[in-house]
Every structure is written in structure tokens, then in C-alpha cells.
Amino acid sequence: MATQNDTPKSSSGTKGEAPPPQYSKVALIIGIAGQVGSYLSEFLLDKGYEVHGMSLRSSNFNTQRVDHIYIYPGNKAHSARMKLRCSILTDSSLCLRRCIDAISPDEIYNLADQYEAAVSFETPEYPADAVATVAVRLLEAVRSHVCVTGRRHIRYFQSGSSEVFGPKSLKPEYWDKHIEDWARPPLSETSRFQPWSPYGVSKLAVHFYTRHYREAHGLFACNGLLFNPESPRQDWNFVIRKITRAVGRIKMGLQSKLFIGNLDASRDWGFAGDYVEAMWMMLQQEKPDDYVVATGESHTVDEIMKAAFKYVGLEWVDYVVYDYSIPLRPAGVDQLRGDAAKAKEVLGWNPKVGFKKLVEMMLDEDIKLAKREKVLVDNGYIDVSNSPVLGPFERGDMKRTLEALMLPS
Fold first, then answer.
1. How confident is the model over 72-81, as pLDDT tens digits?
2. Average pLDDT score, the chain
3. Are 39 and 9 in contact (CB under 8 A)?
């Protein structure tokens, strides 16, 4: 199924019409509707690419993160070079191959993901399907396409995760959980893999599938081990966004408390918009390889929470309630920090947005959303008592509701 014309880019125009413009490169993004996919599409469009996006859907085709490119009239130059398609998890490698044949991409970015490591404990079979099976089908489709067409210049990026690492990925002398985070060395491409969640296991399988197709079939295929990409486009069910969303609503008087669980978990949080540049750089090299993409700094959930309240001028102690009922992972990892030295040296990549700026960017967005929600509350369209934590609207639904009601956004 396609949401736009499936005509390959090489098709000529009808009689009396100029042929469609040809762009420098063509990219196919699997998982374009996610936060990373939306930033990558913007990045590639700015570089003059023709971008084809595919979203692996289950029940609905959600494009809210790319609507500002694809639908709104202010982006005519970009929307003319962007085409969206959708697929389902059960699509075979043959179906994916037909899609690749039609598009003839120069670069393929597989960002299809399940993302939530914690949820994977409840449905461990889902990441196996949504992550590992999708990836191997796509790799096989690329291999088949190359064999039939001879287009050996095609390049493939596989989105990886820091969840492939665990507490014993470091040397034994660092296994003691009481060692301070700053005293532990960061994790690199040569660190031992030790996933502690079904999601992490699936991502590790994908990592080795990608290496297999690179080494056995000669594909130009790269793994990017991404450490916690975050942004104002992140889903609300991830911890930073949960915090910034709640703080924004508290600031606007829509919420009174932030209920939170484990404050000690420490991660290397980076800006998704910075990470997409590293992904693109990997595919511009002479040889394919695997890279860690990270900031090199780790911060706890407690630090995030305090930074967020400080930014809006509120005392966190007045609003935060530690909720012991929030379940922890059956197997948790206290701290993960990445070493992107290889990416910096080989690719020339460096992150631009630091931790403090990232939290502030996300808060600015969530304060804006809270102001919009307050318009609905003040005009009697919703009852705030029915949404004590996150509010009743997903981000796209709120925007569409405001437009329908002709209320200012």
C-alpha cells in the first residue's frame, strides 16, 4: 500500500509535460515516522536528496512527526521530493524487494524499531518480529536487488542500540555496582555485548545480521550503536519526555505532582538531530564499518528532573513524589555511557547539543503544548481532572483538535 504515487523516479513525464526533476541521490528511510526518521528526512532533504519514507504500521499510519514537511504548504520544495509508503510487519523480503526495485535508492536507512526495552519484558516475541525479522527481510531484499540489478553502490545503515550492552560489558574490575559512574570507562565498538532485555537481544541479532550481510555478501552495510536519542519529538512514554511533559503541565497549572520511579538510572542522552548526521556520514565513507554514536556523558533521571524544574523556576521538592509502585525492569542496567571516539576520528562527527540544552529544548516544546491544552481547559472543551498526569491528547490529536475548534495554538 502506498500513500503517494509509486512511480519510480526514472519515469518520464507525459506528452507535453517536462520530465520530473532528478535529484543528486535517492534515500529510503524505513521508520520515517519516528523521531529519528523525521530528523533524518529533514537532514537529507536539505542536502537535495529525494526521500522515500516507509512506516511499518500495525493499525494506523501515523505521520505526525513529518506532517510539517509533507503536508503543510510552506514546505513545497521539500514535499515535492518526499514520498511516503507504508508496510506491515508480515511483508516478505520479496515485497520489500519490489519496493526497492521501484525506488532504486542509493542509500537505505533502517530505523524500524520497537524502542521500549522495558515493555519488551511483557511481550518478548514482539521485538523479535518488529526488530530482528524486519531487519533480516530488508537485508535480504537489498542483497537480492543488488544481485539482479548490479547496483553495488547501494549503501545500508542499520540503527542499533546501547541496549546491546550490560553491566558486565566492561572489564571485571568495573562490575561492582557501587563504583561511581564517572569512574567507569565508556562503552565502545569493542566492548563486550551483554543485552539484558528481549529488546536488547533483538537489537544484537540485527547487529550481527548486518555484519553477516556485509562480510558474506559484500553489502556496504553499517551499524550505528545509538545511545538514547532524544528530542522534542520523542514519545511521551520515555522518561525524559515524561518528565518534561509533566513539568510543562505543572508550570501551566494543569498538573500538581510528578510521580516518578527509579531516579538513579543513568544514560548517555543525546539529541536525535545530531545523531542523524553521524548516520549519514557513515554511508559516505570508502569502507563500511560499525560506530558508536553518543555524547560521552551520562546523566541520571534525578539530574534530568532537577534540571527541568530549575529551567521553569520551580522547586522540584514541592512537586515530585517517588512512586514505589512503578515497576522496575526484571533485569536492569544502572549505567550506560558511550565512547564515540571512533566516530569523531574517522567521520569527523561531534554532537552539538549538550545535556542542558536538550532538556531545555524538550521543555520549550512541552510548555508550548501545555499552553495549547490550557486553551481547551479554559474554554471548557476538556476536564483537566480526567487527565492528572499526561493529559488526554497525543501531540498530533491536540493540534488537529485546536485547528478544528479554530482556537489559537
1. 545 555 556 6
2. 82
3. no
Q: Grade residue 324 by pLDDT with cuts at 50, 70 and 90.
A: confident
Mark out the alpha helices in 153-271 (DSSP H runs): 198-217, 239-251
Active site positions, annotated: 161, 163, 199
Q: What is the Cα–Cα distance from 300 to 319, expressed in whole angstroms?
A: 18
Is the alpha carbon torsion for 315, 320, 322, 328 positive or negative? negative
Question: ∠74-77-79 over CA atoms, to 5°?
Answer: 80
> Which strand (E) or helix (H) includes residue 299?
strand 299-300
Number of alpha helices (DSSP H) and beta strands (DSSP E) in the chain: 13, 13
* CA atoms 368, 373, 375, 378: torsion sign: negative
Task: Output the nine-digit C-alpha cell for 108.
Answer: 537505505
The answer, yes or no, to whether residue 148 has pLDDT greater than 60, is yes
pLDDT of residue 284: 98
Indicate whether this model's pTM tops 0.85.
no
Sequential DSSP letters for 61-92? ---TTTHHHHTSGGGHHHHTTEEEEEEETT--
Bridge partner residues of 84 (DSSP): 53
Q: Residue 322: beta bridge partners?
A: 260
Are the CB atoms for 301 and 259 separated by under 8 Å?
Answer: no
Give 20-42 pLDDT, tens digit per residue. 455 589 999 998 988 999 999 99
